[in-house]
Write a structure and sequence with these properties.
binds pyridoxal-5'-phosphate; Aspartate Aminotransferase, domain 2; single chain; 4-stranded mixed β-sheet; Aspartate Aminotransferase, domain 1; 2 domains; alpha/beta
Length: 433
């Protein structure tokens, strides 16, 4: 039985209290602090398959999957075994290795837009590097991003989403100079007219458009029919580049990512999460003529001490090998659809207005009666209700992302039984909200 009747998190509380004096907010990355749902975060002890154990011994069914990488399940035995063998040869080379070639070939074979790839250490690094490349290749400075899309924490992407502030390009965070973000133009997601207007107002100045082809960072939002096609057309007509940030969707919503799923090929792509199999990896890649700009092949500088690290490459290779096995994406779709449809159903049965769905192993549910096509729609959700739902589920042994504005993730390790337990817990929690 996963859920605990006497839910205690005494050790978590002690460790998290001590962490407050050691790290800003007690964490290494903000969302982990549970600020948007309130209450105490749990401190993990170990993870395996679809499960997490906290330091108090509570067990949870996990739908965060370390924010995406754990698509084969946490600590998959074959990934662990491959890592053991790789460890024996050392932890870092800072020099070429055959593992880089193997993972590069796998990525190039899988992702339609990628002819040449560069490995980095995180999604943030991949996105900031691709932005430099967009500018270097086109000789233009301006870019378009969408409200509610997250492309890591580099200065130029930290532009407030929504309202007049967004269009003025005012930075989202202190410490980001206004001069860094004035070239970052924003539009509402799924709004082709807004994109066209920006191109009209900034003729021959826009290097390209970057987006999450399925949004996961404003909650789970899918592209409307024709949106990705429209962006492909507009960018082509204007001599601009189209960049899919597939850090989240890559190897998750299909082996070849959103570009395979929707049949739209961007010029450049960023990757992360799954391709590192739980170790720190990011990557950017695309058309050979564009990637030839990257040093040392070309003049655009970008480098990294630990980039292409043999451990990270090994975990990535094994993870992709596991994903290539027959039936994996059918299994991910079946299990995730059962969960997403089931959540919507129990929420409606218990009298709540909800909107959501899934694509393959990515899902979401907003507490709103409206359909959600962009960040403004998402912001109409009942955040207080989400917070209470989140806490209730946690206390029943279900670990959901601690924000309404995050997608959920499943893995090959999640079983029908896990989903049924989750839905039973949701029914009880929702009935009490
Ligand atoms: C779409 C997208 N791009 C970029 C990033 C940044 O990746 P990282 O956290 O590895 O720096 C994330 C992280 O969640 C993401 O979801």
């Amino acid at each position: 039985m996963v859920s605990t009747t006497s839910f205690k998190t005494t050790k978590s509380e002690e460790i998290f209290a001590a962490a407050q004096n050691l790290m800003p907010g007690g964490v290494s990355s903000p969302v982990r602090a549970f600020k948007s749902v309130g209450g105490q975060p749990i401190v993990f002890d170990r993870v395996k398959g679809a499960y997490i154990w906290d330091v108090d011994g509570n067990k949870y069914i996990d739908y965060v999957g370390t924010w995406g990488p754990a698509i084969c399940g946490h600590a998959h035995p074959e990934v662990i075994e491959a890592l053991h063998q790789a460890l024996e040869k050392g932890t870092s080379f800072g020099a070429p290795s055959v593992q880089e070639n193997i993972l590069a070939e796998m990525v190039i074979d899988a992702v339609p837009s990628i002819e040449v790839v560069r490995f980095v250490n995180s999604g943030t690094e991949a996105c900031m590097s691709v932005l430099r490349l967009m500018r270097a290749f086109t000789g233009r400075d301006k870019i378009i991003k969408f409200e509610g899309c997250y492309h890591g924490h580099a200065d130029m992407f930290l532009v407030k989403a929504g309202s007049g502030v967004a269009t003025l390009g005012l930075p989202d965070s202190p410490g980001v100079p206004k001069s860094t973000t004035t070239n970052t133009l924003t539009a509402p997601y799924n709004d082709l007219e807004a994109v066209k207007a920006l191109f009209d107002e900034n003729k021959d100045e826009i290097a390209g458009v970057i987006l999450e082809p399925v949004v996961g960072n404003a909650g789970f939002i899918v592209p409307d029919a024709g949106f990705l096609e429209g962006l492909r057309e507009i960018t082509q007509d204007n001599g601009s580049l189209l960049v899919f940030d597939e850090v989240m969707t890559g190897f998750r919503i299909a082996y070849g990512g959103a570009q395979e799923k929707f049949g739209i090929t961007p010029d450049l792509t960023t990757l992360g999460k799954v391709i590192g199999g739980g170790l720190p990896v990011g990557a950017y890649g695309g058309r050979k003529d564009i990637m030839s700009m990257v040093a040392p092949a070309g003049p655009m500088y970008q480098a990294g001490t630990l980039s292409g690290n043999p451990l990270a490459m090994t975990a990535g290779i094994k993870t992709l090998e596991l994903l290539q096995r027959p039936g994996t994406y059918e299994q991910l779709e079946q299990i995730t659809k059962k969960l997403a449809d089931g959540l919507l159903q129990v929420a409606k049965e218990t009298g709540h207005d909800v909107y959501g769905g899934n694509i393959s192993a990515m899902f979401g549910m907003f507490f709103t009666g409206n359909s959600v096509h962009n960040y403004d729609d998402a912001k109409k959700s009942d955040l207080n209700k989400f917070a209470r739902f989140h806490r209730g589920m946690l206390e029943k042994g279900i670990y959901l992302a601690p924000s309404q504005f995050e997608a959920g993730f499943t893995s090959l390790a999640h079983t029908d039984n896990d989903i049924e337990q989750t839905l039973a817990a949701a029914k009880e929690v929702l009935a009490d909200l």
